[in-house]
């Protein structure tokens, strides 16, 4: 059986406490609805509804880990039809959502990132702190693993100090107003939670709405593997042998069937 395609994206944060649930608007009713949708998709889903992917890199740590196998809900952001809009939970793409999308530079690759800015948002980064519409953005999910400051990565937008894609150059040339980027229509600014180790919108520009596939639904299996094993082409017999030998000990059992949730922001 072919392995699920690899995402370029994250150890998950610890489960939110009661205060976190309250601040994010989660309620027991919402949790029940979320699990109901998940079960229905698992029971009746096909590749039209859900698709399996695996995380091969650490750009979304510590939210998604290398070796996390995900089910992605492909209906979440689908346009609602005249009947289906009453039956299925279609939602717009929101700030804080984790999205799976076709990499704008090479649509054959699939990435996963978090939406930081939507249409009309003003964004800038000062010494690693994101400012959204003039206010510092609270991001409990993000991690900084490099204490050094980078003139472009950590103070954005600014003059690139490394090679960036032409789409990023167009973003810097056309959508910067008053030292901030202004997200255009049908586009999203996305970043990895592992903020210092993420190839994201800072380097290749906006995510077009048409490129979005869906959002991660849950981790159905998590296995402690290497990026090299997960990105190899063809059948990786070393990886298969690793699974056979160490399945019980390298499987991250606590992540099995872990729901993947966004973190809504109100700026």
Could you please describe the fold and organization of this structure?
With 267 residues, the protein is α+β, with helices and mostly antiparallel strands. The chain has a domain of 183 residues: Umud Fragment, subunit A, CATH 2.10.109.10. It is built from 6 helices and 14 strands. Strands 1, 2, 3, 4, 5, 11, 12, 13 and 14 form a 9-stranded mixed β-sheet that branches. About 9% of the residues have low confidence.
Topology of this structure?
Layout: E1 7-8, H1 18-23, H2 28-44, E2 50-54, E3 68-73, E4 98-102, E5 110-117, E6 122-126, E7 129-132, E8 135-136, H3 166-174, E9 176-177, E10 180-182, E11 187-191, H4 201-204, E12 207-208, E13 212-222, H5 227-231, H6 237-250, E14 258-259
Parallel strand pairs: 1-5
Antiparallel strand pairs: 2-3, 3-13, 4-5, 4-13, 5-11, 6-7, 6-10, 7-8, 9-10, 11-12, 13-14
Care to give the gist of this entry?
It contains 6 helices and 14 strands.
Q: Report the CATH topology name of one domain.
A: Umud Fragment, subunit A
Order of helices and strands: EHHEEEEEEEHEEEHEEHHE
Compute the separation of the termini in Å: 45 Å
Described by strand count, sense and barrel closure, the largest sheet is: 9 strands, mixed
């Amino acid at each position: 059986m072919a392995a699920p395609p690899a995402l370029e994206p994250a150890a998950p944060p610890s489960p939110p406490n009661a205060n976190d649930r309250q601040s994010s608007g989660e309620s027991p009713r919402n949790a029940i609805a979320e699990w109901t949708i998940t079960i229905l998709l698992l029971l009746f889903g096909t590749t039209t509804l859900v698709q399996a992917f695996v995380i091969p890199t650490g750009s979304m740590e510590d939210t998604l880990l290398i070796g996390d196998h995900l089910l992605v809900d492909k209906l979440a952001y689908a346009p609602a039809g005249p009947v289906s809009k009453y039956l299925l939970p279609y939602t717009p793409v929101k700030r804080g959502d984790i999205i799976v999308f076709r990499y704008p530079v090479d649509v054959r690759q699939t990435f996963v990132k978090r939406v930081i800015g939507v249409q009309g948002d003003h964004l800038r980064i000062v010494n690693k702190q994101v400012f959204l519409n003039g206010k510092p953005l609270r991001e409990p999910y993000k991690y900084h693993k490099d204490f050094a400051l980078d003139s472009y990565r950590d103070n954005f937008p600014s003059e690139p100090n490394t090679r960036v894609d032409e789409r990023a150059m167009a973003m810097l040339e056309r959508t910067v107003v008053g030292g901030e980027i202004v997200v255009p229509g049908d586009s999203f600014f996305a970043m990895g939670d592992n903020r210092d180790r993420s190839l994201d919108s800072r380097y290749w520009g906006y995510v077009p709405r048409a490129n979005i596939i869906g959002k991660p639904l849950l981790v159905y299996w998590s296995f402690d593997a290497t990026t090299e094993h997960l990105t190899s082409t063809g059948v990786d017999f070393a990886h298969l042998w690793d699974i056979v030998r160490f399945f019980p000990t390298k499987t991250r059992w606590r992540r099995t069937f872990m729901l993947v949730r966004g973190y809504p922001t109100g700026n």
